[in-house]
Task: structure prediction
Amino acid sequence: MDLFFWPVVDILTWGFLTVYLQKVSLNGLNIASTLLGAITFWLIIQMFQNAAAVTFLEDVWEKNFLNIFVAPVKVSEFLTATAILALIRIFLVMIVISIVSMFLYRYSIFSVGIYFAPFIAILMLFAFSIALFNMSIILRYGTSAQTLAFGLIFIFQPFSAVFYPVSALPAIVHPISYLLPSTYVFEGMRQLINFGTVTSSDIYYGLILSLCYVVLMIIFFSRMFARVRIEGRLLKMDS
Amino acid sequence: MINVIETKNLVKKFGDFCAVDDLSLNIEEGKITALLGPNGAGKTTTIQMMLDIITPTSGEIRIFGKPMHENREEILSQLNFSSPYVQLPGNLTVMENLKTFARLYGVKDIKKRIEELADYFEIRNLLKKMTSSLSTGQLTRVNLTKAFLNEPKLLLLDEATASLDPDIADKTRKVLKKIQKERNVSILYTSHNMIEIEELCDKVIFINNGKLREEGTPEELIKRFGHKDLNEVFLEIAREDDK
Result:
């Protein structure tokens, strides 16, 4: 699957971008900031998802997962610790990419002003919900499913309108796009950079959607965990 | 006689396969009890149900007199577990690993506790080493140190001395016996080494095909079966079902 997955995602993403650039007039659009902002925020969502999933996987690879759940640790405490650790890691990543962006391109990720906090919140919540889904699948199917931890996020990239607006996508795909919280962040970011405004309702929709996904995935993880305990698979996750 | 573990009509099925079949057993407080049986007898499944890692199909497990599933965190804080099939993260030092687990168990005065146990299990010189660099014998002693961090009332040791050479295995058993007597820890022990079981255990429970077959002290079982050692008792029970 790896053989085909990455080329297909790349073709989708860059193909839609190409179509968008062919159609649009670039006058008045700050393309450089728009693309840099898009890459930066995409990296945040990607790295947060990876950080959360890899934190979980490290315990599986090290055969330490069982040690943790034989200790008096609740599932909620485990997930909270995973999220906090991912937050710490992404904070360090953000410092590095801020410095590199500013030094090389004179671009600041804080150029979105007061909208930085809600944008980051939406992206991290969405990333965490994807990580929860990955962890649930790995719990159920073992490390043979671990490719998801690194690859699943990229399925959302073409449809999150990261580098181009939703209008550049085929109309049939628009409903899918608007079901992704990340879409509202990237649309909002482009609107802010190029026109100086953000539609507040977009932020609310993004936040509500991402919170809904987190709650859904927590329920999904809990159900998978319960199922894995019934099937006796906690000791077999590294297969 | 107080029982730290009681199982009542415990059943575990994986599809059509019945791994544990109506198992009712009691583990006495303050004793070292061996849970024996051939491979596939249901020992590990039984222990994992006691640890709430596997959900029973039916039946009841009470630990310290309380149902396990409803009092999970309270019970787990008073017991511990060691097995060669579960490892500590190799990219941390021994001290870092022990500190992490001490915090998970809410141990107070962590440094003092680790140093005290490090002397007991002779791992002081290993504390600063990376866990991945340890030999099997060293890892076993570190795992046992981790198992005693929270001053458990109950220890489940699943083949704790497997893969150890006779010298290290003997030393480990002596330390276990000493610490068990001093702290009145109840231990549920599995092993395939019958000489070790005879030396260490106050009581033996044999299971096979998920069912309780025999129980008693090693001496009682040897006398009951008219054999010279526990190994021959094991072989007779294990081969009973083949007939």
